[in-house]
């Protein structure tokens, strides 16, 4: 059975640009764009999981490719 790859995604319609993921939780995974966060490295890391849990609006998720 083939293992599915996972990647980080941000729902830009939910993101409020608070910067928690970019500056506090997972700066290696996320960066700040013009008004919202953007995925810099889609690899699911422990830090990224902290960002998912800490995102105040639930804009970050893990998607299977």
Top CATH class: Alpha Beta
Number of helices: 2
- Give me the strand/helix succession: EHEEHE
User: Which range does the strand content fall in?
Assistant: 15-25%
CATH fold type: Alpha-Beta Plaits
Rg, alpha carbons: 11 Å
Average pLDDT reading: 95
> Could you give the count of β-strands?
4
Number of domains: 1
Alpha carbon gap, first and last residue: 15 Å
User: Share of helix among residues?
Assistant: 10-25%
Structure description:
It is built from two helices and four strands. By secondary structure, the chain is an alpha+beta fold. It is globular, with a radius of gyration of 11 Å. It has one domain: 2-Layer Sandwich (Alpha-Beta Plaits), CATH 3.30.70. The chain has a two-stranded antiparallel sheet. It has a two-stranded antiparallel sheet with strand order 2-3.
């Amino acid at each position: 059975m083939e293992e599915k790859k996972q990647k980080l995604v941000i729902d830009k319609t939910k993101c409020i640009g608070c910067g928690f993921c970019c500056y506090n939780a997972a700066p290696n995974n996320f960066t700040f764009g013009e008004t919202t966060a953007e995925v810099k490295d889609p690899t699911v890391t422990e830090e990224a999981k902290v960002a998912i849990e800490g995102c105040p609006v639930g804009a970050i998720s893990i998607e299977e490719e």
